[in-house]
From TrEMBL:
Any one biological process term the GO annotation gives: regulation of DNA-templated transcription
Pfam families, alphabetized: PAS
Stretches assigned to the PAS fold domain: 21-107
InterPro entries: PAS-like_dom_sf (IPR035965), PAS_fold (IPR013767)
Name used for this protein in its record: PAS fold domain-containing protein
Species lineage: unclassified sequences, metagenomes, ecological metagenomes
Amino acid sequence: MHLGFTDDAIFDRIDSLSESELDELDFGVIGFDAETIVRRYNALEARLAGLSPQRVLGQPLFTVVAPCMNNFMVALRFEDAATTGDSLDETINYVLTFRMKPVKVKLRLLAGPPGKTLRYLLVNRLQ
């Protein structure tokens, strides 16, 4: 099954993928829970970010793993969706700056309706 970064209704498809299927995607995937603890992390994101799964899984996303995203553009959007109980599916242009030279990316912020355990941050590095 091919899944693209811009595909419609991507939340449920990402949420149902096995870890090995996540590793086959051509974009980065970070899945985290309501406390922002990283629970899923695919191989491409690990390789391109230079952060091993052992270093990322079980850690708070916005304070330990990617503090450069702890702002109104990323973290606050997830917080607002959780507060209002709304789903979230937004794509933004962003520049990653933590632990690396600046890298232009597109981020897709995904949060399902209430009752869904994980939220997802998809990372598409621009060529």
